[in-house]
């Protein structure tokens, strides 16, 4: 048995999954951890990581390395997505990851992955618990700086993918700057999302998908809110269904609330309260795009995503 770890560092959060690869090839999850570090804070405007954002990310990764060493992790893969693709001073970030991850596996450091690989890893993780008769699937991974769309089948055939440059942090920092956002800001953000959705329609065969799967923090938080949870329950969120008509009522409400009011809800992470309005505008645009191209009128929510895809890849290498 070998223990491995996956780390995903995005625009808004850094997440860790530690798993055990058993001799028969089965994967057993040991722990999942998430911290909001907002690494991409200000990158859209300045093109550089802010020192405070790098310090927050370093502190979180130091804690993750301690967890990995405690759990006797032997192999680790860390991927870095939208924020690191955009930042001019990315060398400081990568040097830091090599210093820390090298304590677990010599030579390990964060990798910048393309939007296409990000989409594939997210797809692999998100559809792991689904059934072939429900496919083809469209997995939608809504992040802080970008949103990945990938259509494929349960056996791994990818029919099309695209990384759209929109996410909850990017929309908030670039457009929805007031708290709560003004009607004009909401309209501009909506138009921006519509432009990104037009790009998706040209590149990804949305019309071939039967089931639409939403993953990452905006989608999972909306599921928790829709279910009226008093505390975040990942088991109840995973596999839940959000119907478009009811979801639009919820997203409208979230967009119009100030962040301090959103933060009062126990299932909204304090680090997500100020950006989930931007995420909701993105979700609304995604629903409209789906309605133009499919008869589907709901999302299925997955707690599994790019981290699970990374672990699957590490397991394949170990067993090959």
TrEMBL record:
It is an enzyme of class 3 (hydrolase). GO terms for molecular function: exopolyphosphatase activity. It comes from the Bacteria. Its EC number is 3.6.1.11. Pfam families: Ppx-GppA (PF02541). Keywords: Hydrolase. Residues 23-294 form the Ppx/GppA phosphatase N-terminal domain. CDD domains: ASKHA_NBD_MtPPX2-like. PANTHER family: EXOPOLYPHOSPHATASE (PTHR30005), EXOPOLYPHOSPHATASE 2 (PTHR30005:SF13). This is Exopolyphosphatase. It comes from Corynebacterium aurimucosum (strain ATCC 700975 / DSM 44827 / CIP 107346 / CN-1). The lineage of its organism: Bacteria, Bacillati, Actinomycetota, Actinomycetes, Mycobacteriales.
